């Protein structure tokens, strides 16, 4: 029989190996298909477009705020309130942060509980229906939440009076100087409760998907070692989803910071107060929504300037979220 002229070398295990000159060169470039090149270019352009859009928004807000900056330098008394821009925007920043923080504190435990129930506790026939109902909350328009909040506010006046009676020594629940609370219920606490309902589906949906990704073998191993259902969740599910929980919480916070219509419909105009159950306090978004239609000149520039402040706050929150997620991911690994 004719023999092949190609020789082989013997590998470590005695298996034939191709000769060195027949092996592909390590410097040989991989073949790039046209589809891969188009896809990579498209994704690169999409990322650049996002950065350009973000930069464009920032430049627009900064340019439109130039009149306010000039007034702050030359004549601070011309700005609303008569004490300069920072004295005007500071109460709005406090109201925004306080309402968002309260909403986050109220919504997060409920969201985690609902997500754990639908993924590990609920019957299989009930879990999808319950998840669908929770997701529907995100589709309700903000104005509907605002109308519902107005109804809720009228029913909370008695509860606020009770808080002032028994917990009035706490500044957050202190009554007015005359010893009364809001007779309409349109307070920052009411707005915060409505915000908590609005961010609930966001946090719930994201954490539910994270919990579903928990390795099944880890859950079964915990149960096989004698752990109860709650111990399995505490040892396997929650540690696995720490970074996802942080991300979902920060996204809910971002939604609460920028919510406009519902908060604007609920809050009554007033000055900054430490109490959550009296009229007063405003957020940046509601201040813009209530005054923008009639604004012109310097007043318009002021509203755009506080919009720039809200933009910066949201950017800082997202940067903090990225840092928290990165830290929890490193610890989890």
TrEMBL record:
UniProt keyword annotations, A-Z: Cell membrane, Membrane, Phosphate transport, Transmembrane, Transmembrane helix, Transport
Region of interest called Disordered, as start-end residue ranges on this chain: 1-31
Domain ABC transmembrane type-1 span(s) in chain numbering: 93-321
Transmembrane domains' residue ranges: 42-65, 85-117, 129-150, 187-207, 261-284, 304-325
Compartments, record wording: Cell membrane
Compositionally biased spans, kind Polar residues: 1-10
Main location: membrane
CDD domains (alphabetical): TM_PBP2
Bilayer topology annotation: Multi-pass membrane protein
Function per UniProt: Part of the binding-protein-dependent transport system for phosphate; probably responsible for the translocation of the substrate across the membrane.
Family named by the database record: Belongs to the binding-protein-dependent transport system permease family. CysTW subfamily.
PANTHER family hit by this protein: PHOSPHATE TRANSPORT SYSTEM PERMEASE PROTEIN PST, PHOSPHATE TRANSPORT SYSTEM PERMEASE PROTEIN PSTC
Protein's name according to its UniProt entry: Phosphate transport system permease protein
Organism expressing this protein natively: Brevibacterium metallidurans
């Amino acid at each position: 029989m004719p023999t092949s002229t190609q020789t082989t070398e013997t590998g470590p295990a005695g298996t034939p190996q191709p000769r060195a000159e027949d092996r592909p060169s390590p410097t040989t470039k991989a073949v790039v298909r046209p589809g891969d090149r188009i896809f990579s270019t498209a994704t690169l352009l999409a990322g650049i477009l996002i950065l350009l859009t973000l930069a464009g928004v920032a430049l627009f807000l900064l340019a439109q705020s130039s009149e306010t900056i000039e007034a702050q330098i030359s004549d601070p008394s011309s700005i609303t309130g008569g004490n300069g821009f920072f004295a005007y925007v500071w109460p709005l920043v406090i109201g925004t942060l306080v309402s968002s923080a309260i909403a986050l504190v109220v919504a997060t435990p409920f969201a985690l509980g609902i997500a754990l129930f639908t993924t590990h506790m609920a019957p299989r026939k009930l879990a999808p229906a319950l998840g669908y109902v929770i997701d529907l909350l995100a589709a309700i328009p903000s104005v509907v939440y605002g109308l519902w909040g107005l109804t809720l506010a009228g029913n909370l006046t008695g509860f606020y009076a009770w808080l002032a009676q028994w917990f009035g020594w706490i500044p957050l629940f202190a009554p007015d100087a005359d010893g009364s609370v809001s007779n309409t219920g349109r307070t920052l606490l009411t707005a915060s409760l409505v915000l908590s309902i609005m961010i609930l589906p966001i946090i719930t949906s994201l954490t539910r998907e994270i919990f579903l990704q928990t390795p099944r073998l880890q859950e079964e191993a915990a149960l096989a070692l004698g752990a109860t259902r709650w111990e399995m969740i505490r040892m396997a599910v929650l540690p696995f989803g720490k970074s996802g929980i942080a991300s979902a919480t920060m996204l809910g916070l971002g939604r609460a910071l920028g919510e406009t219509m519902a908060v604007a419909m609920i809050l009554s105009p007033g000055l900054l107060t430490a109490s959550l159950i009296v009229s007063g306090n405003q957020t940046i978004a509601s201040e813009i929504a209530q005054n923008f239609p009639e604004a012109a000149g310097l007043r318009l520039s002021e509203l755009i300037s506080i919009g720039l402040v809200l933009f910066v706050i949201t950017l800082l929150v997202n940067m903090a979220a990225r840092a928290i997620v990165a830290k929890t991911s490193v610890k989890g690994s």
